[in-house]
Amino acid sequence: MDIQKTIREKAEAAKRASRALAILSTSVKNDALRAMADALEKRAELVLEANAQDLEEARAKGLKRSYLDRLMLNEGRIRQMAEGLRQTAALPDPICQGDYSTIRPNGLEIRRVRVPLGVIGIIYEARPNVTADAAAGLCLKAGNAVLLRGGSEAIRSNTAISSLLAKAAYKAGVPEGALQFVEFTAREAVDAMTHLSGLLDVIIPRGGAGLIRHVVENSSVPVIETGTGV
Questions:
Q1: Distance of alpha carbon 132 from alpha carbon 81, whole angstroms
Q2: First vs last Cα of the chain: how many Å apart?
Q3: What angle (nearest 5°) sits at the alpha carbon of residue 118, between those of residues 117 and 121?
Q4: Chain centroid to CA 82: how far?
Q5: Rounded to the nearest 10 degrees, how much is the dihedral formed by the CA atoms of 95, 179, 172, 21?
Q6: Which pLDDT score is estimated for 126?
Q7: CA 20 to 30 Å from 41, out of 64, 74, 79, 105?
Q8: Ramachandran bin of 109, using left for φ above 0, alpha for ψ from -120 to 50, beta for the remaining angles
Q9: In what order do the strands lie in the sheet with 119-124?
Q10: What is residue 122's predicted lDDT score, i.e. its pLDDT?
Q11: Mind giving me the DSSP string for the chain?
């Protein structure tokens, strides 16, 4: 399979969806977030089964206990993910809200109003909860489409979570294609995302220093650099 072609197609679908998502009503976005939370809880068994396979493989690789803890999901953690989505739904809609205005001496009023960025690419590592929390939840609330690429150790967990979230969101009225997940674990997938100028409006790398440095140094897409993990 052509990794670059497939990822570009996903980004193109997200870009198309972003135009409708940007003007989606607050009520539809909030209904979608609550539907996504319900889907996680109702299909928790599916997520836990996928996570068990990820954990089995991670243990076979001899990964540290701290890393395994970040990777592990249980019913309590899935409930926390769902509650995070519901809390996000309860937040005020940031879109079209003004946070600054001034009137010039000639009477001209200048206002600063929050608008969606468009399509956000998020590249992250072990924690499967990021798929729901920062990615789908916060991006959707702010009217942004998203292209996600998680770490290889959590590929099954992330695939299951993203699929549940996307189906629930689309059924609730979110434009088809707004929530995209990259199933490829090769580094080539990261490099493909960092060269999607015109399709991705910003990339956010979340993880260790090596990942963040690689994205910052090689991306032709604007990058929001986060703090490094441990």
A1: 6
A2: 34
A3: 95
A4: 15
A5: 30
A6: 74
A7: 64
A8: beta
A9: 179-181, 145-149, 119-124, 202-206
A10: 94
A11: --HHHHHHHHHHHHHHHHHHHTT--HHHHHHHHHHHHHHHHHTHHHHHHHHHHHHHHHHHTT--HHHHHHH---HHHHHHHHHHHHHHHHSPP-TT-EEEEEE-TTS-EEEEE----SEEEEEE-S-THHIIIIIIIIHHHTT-EEEEE--GGGHHHHHHHHHHHHHHHHHTTPPTTSEEE----SHHHHHHHTT-BTTBSEEEEES-HHHHHHHHHH-SS-B-------
Structure tokens at 48: 């836990």
pLDDT band at 207 (very low <50, low <70, confident <90, very high): confident
Q: What pLDDT does 228 receive?
A: 61
**Backbone phi and psi for residue 47, each to the nearest 5 degrees, phi listed first:** -65, -45
Query: Is the distance from CB of 194 to CB of 203 less than 8 angstroms?
Result: yes
Q: What's the CA gap between 151 and 65, in Å, rounded? A: 17
Two tokens at 116? 């969606």
The owner of tokens 């109702």 is 42
Alpha-carbon distance of 33 to 46, in angstroms, equals: 19
CA 26 to CA 140: how far, in whole Å?
10
Burial class (CB in 10 A: 0-12, 13-18, 19+), 99: exposed
pLDDT in tens, 69-82: 999 999 999 999 99
Does the pLDDT of residue 91 top 80, yes or no?
yes
Neighbouring C-alpha atoms within 13 Å toward the C-beta of 90: 7
pLDDT digits (tens, 9 = 90+) for 215-227: 999 999 999 987 6
Cβ atoms 81, 157 nearer than 8 A? no
